[in-house]
């Protein structure tokens, strides 16, 4: 029997998470997208804490335009917060989503904001 879309994403997510992990020096940038919003957070997996987060629901993120433009704004916002927290290098976790469209726009926005990955 074929896997559902969610089951496929979770299987991909487990495979990716087996290979990458975040630390306080090199945190993991985890991306989650729903139909309307997009969320990003920098995670220290060794301590199990979220260091910085940003989403399209926040007031300081410009939520006008297409969903792809909003994703790029979220990427710039998380980069600004990370730089303020003293974080410059990260590991990117697409969370089982295809690196295309909104996920790619968020990653490009984070790179424009000054993050290295």
TrEMBL record:
The entry's keywords: Ribonucleoprotein, Ribosomal protein, RNA-binding, rRNA-binding
InterPro entries: Ribosomal_L18 (IPR057268), Ribosomal_uL18_bac-type (IPR004389), Ribosomal_uL18_bac/plant/anim (IPR005484)
Any GO BP: translation
Residue spans crossing the bilayer: none
Recorded superkingdom: Bacteria
Pfam families cross-referenced by the UniProt entry: Ribosomal_L18p
GO molecular function, one term: structural constituent of ribosome
Signal peptide limits: none
GO cellular-component term (any): cytosolic large ribosomal subunit
Family statement drawn from the similarity comment of this UniProt entry: Belongs to the universal ribosomal protein uL18 family.
Role, per record: This is one of the proteins that bind and probably mediate the attachment of the 5S RNA into the large ribosomal subunit, where it forms part of the central protuberance.
The protein's name in its UniProt record: Large ribosomal subunit protein uL18
Gene source species: Chryseobacterium luteum
